[in-house]
Amino acid sequence: MIVCVLMQKISIVVLGNPAEPALEALHALAGDAEIVKGKTAADCAQALPEARVLFNWSGSREEVRKALLGMPRLEWIHARYAGLDGLLFPELVESPVPLTNGTGTFSQSLGEFIILGALYFAKDIPRMLRSKAAHEWDVFNVLEISKQTMGIVGYGDIGRAIARRAKGMDMRVYGLRRDPVPRAGDEFVDRIYATADLHKMLPECDYVVVAAPLTKDTKHMLSTAEFNVMKPEAIVMNVGRGPVIDEAALVSALQAKQIRGAALDVFEEEPLPASSPLWDMENVLISPHTADHTKDWLNDAASFFVEQFGRWRKGEPLKNIVDKRAGY
């Protein structure tokens, strides 16, 4: 006698707009999962008690909290994005349920933005644009970034993507992270500094790149004291989280010409207020938090969840497991 055992489908709750085109990638899971999408936890109320997976596509912290509290069978949470400062709350931090994020999905484009920022200032693109607008043949000297040094504050996945490109341009590259013990990816840097040695690294850098997550320890990690020890020629760049840089102190340093310029994709307040002095500074390159918005960025994020689900379903190790207490 042949006995057929039917595998019960796994219930997945997705907090996000059900009409989001990128979520069509989840159709690939139809054979293994029942997927319930909703903008709020209330929209998914009937599915919560039996759901084993929560995919937070765009839900707020409060909606994720409501969902978590209504999911007694929950075994895994995945967040679309890499930064978790807007998501973590006490019940989630204390929960034994593993949390993964989208680290790595957006790193390559952010690495390219940093190289853009370095070349923007090394070749003085603002001066070229002024001369073009004035129809002026303005001959001047430019810098070779192969003779310059880049320091990366927060040497994780984004930092590695930046370092790989910078080394490809023959730059000297330093990385800074909490634990300087050697690990994979360190081959892209000339030296790893411990976080406590930030002030030793900064004076060496022509470009200071922030790629750190926002935690209680990294908020305003770069402020007046840090700008005071930088080179006058230093360029500050941020593709991590806005509040890692004390924006008021940055504005003061730029106005006083303590540093040469900045290339910023993230800010303390977003959208950047129209009243911000940064808008009118010629020595500031502003990207409206779009450095990782490639044409496929949302599709890539959804596809990564599909890949992660395959690992989880097979009992294989998940990628990007978050240390919820550390915040990343």
Q: Quaternary status of these chains?
A: single chain
**Whole-number count of domains:** 2
Percentage of residues in strands: 15-25%
Number of strands: 12
CATH class call of the largest domain: Alpha Beta
Strand order of the largest sheet: 8-7-6-9-10-11-12
Order of helices and strands: EEEHEHEHHEHEEHEHEHEEH
The residue ranges in which pLDDT falls below 50 over 5 or more consecutive positions are: 1-6
Question: What is the tally of helical segments?
Answer: 9
Largest sheet: 7 strands, parallel
CATH architecture classification of the largest domain: 3-Layer(aba) Sandwich
- The assigned structural class equals alpha/beta
The N- and C-terminal alpha carbons lie at a distance of 52 Å
The CATH topology annotation of the largest domain reads as Rossmann fold
Q: Rg, please? A: 22 Å
CATH superfamily of the largest domain: NAD(P)-binding Rossmann-like Domain
Helix content: 25-40%
Shape: elongated
Whole-number mean pLDDT:
96
Structural write-up:
The protein is of the alpha/beta class. The protein folds into 2 domains: 10-104 and 295-314, NAD(P)-binding Rossmann-like Domain (Rossmann fold, 3-Layer(aba) Sandwich); 107-286, NAD(P)-binding Rossmann-like Domain (Rossmann fold), CATH 3.40.50.720. The protein is built from 9 helices and 12 strands. It has helices at 61-69, 90-94, 107-122, 125-133, 157-168, 198-201, 224-229, 247-255, 297-314, and strands at 10-15, 33-38, 53-56, 76-79, 99-100, 149-153, 172-177, 191-194, 207-210, 235-238, 261-264, 284-286. The protein has a 7-stranded parallel beta sheet. Strands 2-1-3-4-5 form a 5-stranded parallel beta sheet, covered by helices on one side. Helix 1 (61-69) links the parallel strand 3 and strand 4. Helix 3 (107-122) crosses helix 5 (157-168). The longest helix has 18 residues, at 297-314.
